[in-house]
Amino acid sequence: MFHNIARHGSLDRLAIGLSGLCIVHCVATVVFLGALSSVGHIIDAPIIHEGGLALAILLGAVALGFGARTHGMMLPVAVGSLGLGVMAGALSLPHGESEAVYTVIGVVLLALGHDLNRRAAA
């Protein structure tokens, strides 16, 4: 069953969707923190960023790793790993525009890696 799910790109689609949610979260946090400063600490909690990164690493390792084993192409793994690295590096930056910009760049690279993986498997 897992083999069929991974082979048909479902994990990659799920990971791309998670990447989209991450972008929405980052942009919404930056835009709305000023207006929602009374509840901003909840939206901007470090556990959300760390948990999201952990989930992205887990999905990336499973989906991209399985794809590489199936189709033998390493480009999706390389692009996705670069994206995860940029996302992880963004966690070391102070909260604000630069963190959001680097996180979005990392998320786009990760989503591109998953898309390349999905296309290579097709």
Features:
mainly alpha, 6 helices, single chain, 122 residues, 83% helix
Describe the structure.
With 122 residues, the chain is mainly α. The chain has one domain (2-121). The protein has helices spanning 2-7, 10-33, 40-43, 46-71, 75-90, 97-121. Helix 2 packs antiparallel against helix 6 (97-121) and helix 4 runs antiparallel to helix 5. The radius of gyration is 15 Å and the shape is elongated. The mean pLDDT is 86.
What are the segments in which pLDDT stays under 50 over at least 5 consecutive residues? Answer: none
Cα distance spanning the termini: 18 Å
Number of strands: 0
- Please outline the major beta sheet: none
User: What is the CA-atom radius of gyration, in angstroms?
Assistant: 15 Å
Write the element-wise H/E pattern from the N-terminal end onward.
Answer: HHHHHH
Strand content: under 5%
Name the average pLDDT: 86
Q: Helix count, per DSSP?
A: 6
Shape: elongated
- Total domain modules: 1
Helix residue percentage: over 70%
Return the structural class.
mainly alpha
